[in-house]
DNA sequence: GTGTCTGCAAACCATTTGCATCGGT
DNA sequence: ACCGATGCAAATGGTTTGCAGACAC
């Protein structure tokens, strides 16, 4: 869990990362579990959760706390925003790098030491409306 | 649950709203339960959840999906942003009305019909750092 | 009186964890 | 050989729900 910890290369880890990186969707842990299971039928849900957590901590992937109840994961570790469909729950990327100054602005309105921010959009995807 | 539905005025509802509105913090359902229980010892957690949900739907209060595992509630129904302390989990308001154009900007980068957005800041409160 | 609201307890569901075994280094 | 990783199943914890009685209107 600390900085010096290097993760071992296990089959489970490899396949999990591979499956996550090859989709454009932003799957939940359970969706990923189903995907990986096709290649590793004996993998457990617990392993999926543990590895997603570890890989997120190590900056290899992103854990998204988007709207719904389940967390979602993104194989693209670079910072970017997301839009979520209110009807079908689909989550898309959003290339909106322009406003990196929100944190600067926010700093002027609080005595908190701002470390990061999260911005999520919600609406209707082209299919749903 | 629909527009025509007007909520009945019950003691539970009154006290709950009153307690929520008189604090500046952004309590979780359980914290609110503890607060209300001092005045209505027989109220149940279920009632607290049901009413918070209903009042949020009716725009009387706000349900916040901020960072952590538990949802938080805000007696101030007017749209505004929040900062959350990464250490003690305290949540403060943020008067940052300046950038109402984020949605406009976002619209240019997606084919979703954007309805709303949520923006949350995280950092360290003055007490924690 | 009618239909909503409440308290209670059980159900839910995403996620976490304990433990014995397995496997990467 | 060591220690992290895994599978399995049970535990957790926030939230939801079914039901019978109580209460607002």
Automatic annotation (TrEMBL), chains A, B:
GO terms for molecular function: DNA-binding transcription factor activity; transcription cis-regulatory region binding; zinc ion binding. Zn(2+) binds at residues 85, 88, 125, 128. Its cofactor is Mn(2+); Fe(2+); Zn(2+). GO terms for biological process: negative regulation of DNA-templated transcription; regulation of secondary metabolite biosynthetic process. Keywords: DNA-binding, Iron, Metal-binding, Repressor, Transcription, Transcription regulation, Zinc. Fe cation binds at residue 117. CDD domains: Fur_like. The keyword NAD does not apply. Pfam families: FUR. It comes from the Bacteria. Binds 1 Mn(2+) or Fe(2+) ion per subunit. Belongs to the Fur family. This is Ferric uptake regulator, Fur family. It comes from Desulfurivibrio alkaliphilus (strain DSM 19089 / UNIQEM U267 / AHT2).
